Amino acid sequence: MAKISSRIARIGIVVIAALMVETVALIQYFSVRRVIEDDNFVRSRIVLGAMRDEVSHKLELVELTMQENQRNIRQALGRPDSLFRAVEHLIDDNPIIVGGCLAFIPDYYPSRGRLFEPYVAKNEKGFHAEQIASPHHDYTLNPAYIQVMEGHGPVWSDPYLYGDSSPRSLTTYSFPVTDPAGKTVAVCGLDVDLSWLGDVLNARQHFRSSFALLLTEDGKLVAGPPAGRTPEREVLRVLDYLSGGRLDKRFAAVPSIRLEKAPHWQLVQVYYRNELYAPLRKMHLLHLSLILIGLLMLLLMINRYARNEQKLYEAGIEQARIGSELAVAGRIQASMLPKIFPDGVYGVLAPAREVGGDLYDCFLRDGKLFFCIGDVSGKGVPSAMIMSKVHSLFRVLSEREDSPALIAGHLNQLACRNNETNAFVTFFLGILDPQDGALVYCNAGHDRPVWLNGDTVSLLPAESNLPLGVFPDISYVEQSCLLKEGDGLFLYTDGLTEARNPEYKLFMRERMLAELSRCRELPARALVEAMLAAVGQFVAGAPQSDDLTMLYISRKSIV
Amino acid sequence: MKTTIQETDDKIVAILSGELDTAAAQETEEALQPLLDSRGREVIIDCTELEYIASSGLRILLGILKEAKAAGSRVVLKNVNDMIRDVMVITGLIRIFEFE
Question: Which of A40, A82, A217, A421 could disulfide-link A76, Cβ–Cβ 3.0 to 4.6 Å?
Answer without folding.
Answer: A82
